[in-house]
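Hi support team,

I submitted a single chain yesterday and got back a structure, but I'm not sure I'm reading the token output correctly. Could someone confirm the output below corresponds to the sequence I sent? I've pasted both exactly as they appear in my results page.

Thanks,
R.
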Amino acid sequence: MKFIIYRTTLKYVKLFTFLSIFSTSINTNSQSAPIDDSINLNKTPPRIIRACCAFGYDLKIWGIPFVSIDQVISIDDLNEHHYMGNKDEGTGTIYTTKGGFIDIGHLRDQIDWTRYLYTTILHNRGKGKVTIPLRNEAGRKTLYLNIPEELSTDDYILLAGKITYDLSLWHEISTWYGASTIPFIPEKFSSFSVEDVYSNLLGIHVGMKTLQSKLPFNKAATMNIESTLDSLGVVKTAKETYDAYDAIHNKWYTNKKRIPSSKITLKRDPDILHSSRPWIIPNQKSNGDDAVVLDVPLLSTKGEPLTNFYQFTIDLNYRFPVEEIFPDRESNLINQDDFSILMKRIANEVQIMEQNTFDEREESSRK
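Hi R., thanks for writing in. Yes, this is the structure output for that exact sequence:
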């Protein structure tokens, strides 16, 4: 494989019975969970902390000639994890035989969000109802907490993971409906791409495991990232990730269109409300049954819905056809329980989009 690539950055671009690769002993004494004073709770982190990646390689950007996007990395490029990011961190995509493509930037972001929200939860336990304004994203976002002081450390961690997942899922939903980090540059081309949600949820699992460690956070996160990727069968070289991309080019993505065209992404995965299944390249030598499915934390250790302890609301902006999606709603205000309605609609739209792309290709091949 020989090509010339100019590296560039895309800024926009089950602890219950979870699988054994993420399991570890947990201290269930809630009094043993001290607040991490190194976390600045007065400053909400940005939704995207690190440069994330477009799915694929050799991607061109509309209006910018002679520049291609290449964010493939190898296991040797990871370096140490740093809470809230560091220029020496390795970010990019890497292939694993049991977890598919992993976006390391997404993974790292969710590790850090899980830590931030865990600290926020500890800080607000026993205080009754607490309101936490979040940054706007396709509308005004607000987090409401009501954290009983008697919850266990397990539950604080699970709760942090669930809220983090809701926030990450909202990012995918909002970009589908036109939200973007950079004005006038839509991000729909990357919404629900086959690696995004899995990478996010994997980061949450790693983040929850890291919070159980007695090691310094960054050191524990670095070790857990490496061991988790290893357990997923991470490839050893960048070339193997390029080869994996080549195997699904013009099937899951195409580099024949330019960013931000939504036609770059040919396959999307909206079946992600309660779990995420990795997309494994066709004809892979390893057994497909080895694929590691990740579950979203939904229940406390006592079987209570984690949503009993928080509510995440969004006051939707003009980009959403609220009256059409929520015809009986008297306002634009929704919460995390409404995501199922939005995801059902998006799944239908994805199906139509993929069928239209297939029909266009069939018609083109007949000419």
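A quick pointer for reading it: Confidence is low (pLDDT under 50) at residues 1-31. Let us know if anything else looks off.

Best,
Support desk
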